[in-house]
Amino acid sequence: MLRILLFLIAFTSLVFSLVAVLDYWGYEEKAHDIATLMQETVTTTALEQRIEAAIQKDAPSEARMYLGVAERFNYPVNEAAYLSRIAALETPWHNTRRNVTAFAGGFMGGQGGGSTAGMAGAITADFTVVGDVRDLHEQYGKYAAGESVNELIVGLAGIGVGLTAATVASSGALAPAKTGTSALKAAMRAGKITPAFQRVLLRQSSAVFDYSAFLKAARADSSVAALRRAAVNAYQPRAFKALSQTTERVNNIRKSTSMADTVELLRYVENTDDLRRVERLSQTYGAQTRGILHLLGRSAIGTLRVLRHATEFIVAIASAAFSLLATLLSMSAWIRKKPAKA
User: Fold this and answer.
1) Within 13 A of 206's CA, how many CA atoms are on the CB side?
2) Taking Cα atoms as reference points, which of 315, 339, 312, 329 lies closest to residue 9?
3) How far is CA 86 from its chain centroid?
4) DSSP letter string, 56-100
5) What does the mean pLDDT of the chain come to?
6) Angle between helices 272-285 and 241-256 (to 10 degrees)
7) Tens digit of pLDDT for each residue in 47-72?
């Protein structure tokens, strides 16, 4: 009787120990320390080269951004040596010429050219439906000519048309989703979206935009007005949930940085986890996020997997091992001492 009682106690302890192991078996992501990464991998010379390159390509805001990164992480950059040269690029004439040219290019071409004014032009075009319909017309022209069609651009442009109508109807409530969608499309046109993330976006957008229905309607009438109607009819808002989470994160990055920076930052995204990490990084470093990612690459959004309850987990493992041993010993003693049958 005593052996049976010891076995039951040991076995019960084993069960509770295993349950505790499962309870404490869980990891959390811990972001790398950016300051440490910067000091370990980025030199003052590398930062100075970035500042110089920005000045040479007539990008004063980018040069100032790198100066801000240098100050934030205590790099001994000779700021005074660059500020006068940067100021020379920011005269009223230079700013007006640069911004007007970039805005027009963004409005007409939809890429933005990596500048705030250019992206403002691209987004303005999309919010007036001009940009989305332009992209649909361009892609349908390729389809009609037997050329390769970018289904992701078609999907995002079609969704953009549907969202524009829905944004007006909702008094602007869907504007963040529309902005996020336009940023994704601009990044796609600029070649900034990785193949892996393209597959994610294509899967999400395909659920929202009926590509086949759009093409069928477009074959009957490919005028600009007809393409717009076909896109609205192919848009399926009830399936927007997955894509809406993506566009919300993209728009959050845009709010922390800028539209131009957001398009550039998407080049580091392979999946939705990466997008979440870039969003978190941008909420900490704001307008300097672009510079940090350019300098550190994907290591800036890398994470370490750390046990949430490391001490408790180790204690639970030890308890489970002890209970298992006690169970096996008590079971062995019980079986060995059982009287033989007559």
Assistant:
1) 9
2) 329
3) 31
4) HTT-HHHHHHHHHHHHHTT----HHHHHHHHHHT-SHHHHHHHHH
5) 80
6) 30
7) 999 999 999 988 899 999 999 999 99
pLDDT score, position 307: 43
Average the pLDDT over each of 63-67, 79-83, 117-121, 163-167 and give the range with the smallest value. Answer: 117-121
Half-sphere CA count of 156, side-chain side, radius 13 A = 26
- pLDDT at position 330 over 70: no
Contact between 237 and 228 (Cβ < 8 Å) = no
The length of the chain, given as a count of residues: 342
Write down the residue that tokens 């440490």 correspond to. Answer: 36
Instruction: Provide φ and ψ at 174, rounded to 5°.
Output: -95, 10
Tokens 């300097």 label which residue?
288
The residue to which tokens 């080049």 are assigned: 267
The span from the CA of 273 to the CA of 269, in Å, is 8
Q: Which of 124-133, 234-243, 286-295 has the highest mean pLDDT?
A: 286-295
Distance, in Å, from the CA atom of 152 to the CA atom of 193, rounded to the nearest integer, reads 11
Residues 153, 141: Cα–Cα separation, whole Å: 13
pLDDT at position 267 over 80: yes
* Residues 185-197: tens digit of each pLDDT: 888 988 899 999 9
**Which one, of 152, 171, 151, 174, lies nearest residue 162 by Cα?**
174
Nearest-5° angle of CA 210, CA 213, CA 219? 140
Report pTM.
0.74
Tokens of 12: 């019960």
What one-character-per-residue DSSP string does 240-271 give?
-HHHHHHHHHHHHHHHHS-HHHHHHHGGG-SS
Q: Residue range 287-300: average pLDDT?
A: 93
Number of other CB atoms surrounding residue 66 within 10 Å: 28
Residue 2 identity (one-letter amino acid): L
Asked if residue 106 lies in contact with residue 121, where contact means CB atoms within 8 angstroms, the answer is yes
Tell me which residue has tokens 């994704």. Answer: 184
